[in-house]
Amino acid sequence: MKVPRLQRMTQDTAEINQSRQSELIEETKKPSEDRIVMLSDGIFAIAVTLLVLGIQIPREDTLTHGAFIEALKGDFFTNTLFYIVTFAVLASYWLQHRRLMNVIDHVDRIFLWLNLLFLAFVSFFPVATNIVQYAKYPEAVIVYTAVLAGCGYSATALWIYALGNHRLIPADKDPYKHIFRVINSALAPTFILLSLCLLLLPNFPPERTFFAWLLLPFVRIPHRFLRSPAEVSVTNE
After folding, report:
1. 183 near 189, Cβ under 8 Å?
2. Residue 21: which pLDDT band, with cuts at 50, 70 and 90?
3. pLDDT over 90, % of the chain
4. What pLDDT shows up at residue 223?
5. pLDDT category, 62, cuts 50, 70, 90?
6. Burial code of 163-178, b = ≥16 C-beta within 10 A, e = fewer?
7. Do 144 and 132 form a contact (C-beta atoms < 8 A)?
8. Nearest to residue 151, comparing CAs of 215, 83, 91, 212?
9. Between 109-123 and 77-103, two packed helices, what is the crossing angle to 10 degrees?
10. Least confident of 5-9, 55-59, 95-99, 230-234
11. What are the domain boundaries of the chain?
12. pLDDT digits 0-9 by tens, 171-224
């Protein structure tokens, strides 16, 4: 009598686990969220591809071997450098977007429009990278910086809207766990915009503004200063 009972218990447990797993899959793979992820990943992929296609050497600069070497040291090196910088920025924004889509429980109309605004900046990156080839002019630096900052602020707006008042996250999740990412995502575009103040210095070469961005990895607030009230109370106890 014990064996059949154990078998029934095992079958019941397996059926319960299977039903919970199917429910979890339905929750994590909603059609609306899947479409957002697919659209976002597609635009990121296209933007990165267009960045690579923008690295070219004009044919008239390669008529002789010496001219070709000079073109490699000049336009090709500069374009490759800005490609690496822009690719790193796009990769960081893609990772932020991926984390956000793993956190939210559902989406609404406002989130969709904010996501489209974010993707509009992402799709404009190839144009901004072409403009930055004229970095010796302050206007080119301003355009490139504005695109990077706009993309960063739009990504921060997505986080703020999703976490505020538990709009798009389950009620049992603590939004304070993600405040660290939100604040640091807003610090980067703010620092980038502040770097434009260097253009106000007399006789300052505009292209050297980008050297200030080497400090970006250090423009962060340590996670220990952004603890949730629950974590603080536990520590005090």
Report:
1. no
2. very low
3. 24
4. 58
5. low
6. beeebbbeeeeebebb
7. yes
8. 91
9. 170
10. 230-234
11. 31-227
12. 767 777 777 778 888 888 999 999 999 999 999 999 888 888 888 778 776 655
Residue 158: name the closest of 87, 99, 226 by CA.
99
DSSP the chain: -HHHHHHHHHHHHHHHHHHHHHHHHHHH--HHHHHHHHHHHHHHHHHHHHHHHT----GGGGSSHHHHHHHIIIIIHHHHHHHHHHHHHHHHHHHHHHHHHHH-S---HHHHHHHHHHHHHHHTHHHHHHHGGGTTSHHHHHHHHHHHHHHHHHHHHHHHHHHGGGSSS-TTS-GGGGHHHHHHHHHHHHHHHHGGGGGGSTT--GGGGGGGGGGGGG----GGGS--HHHHHHHH-
Count of positions (residues) in the chain:
237
Structure tokens of 113? 């429009």
Residue with tokens 């939210």: 104
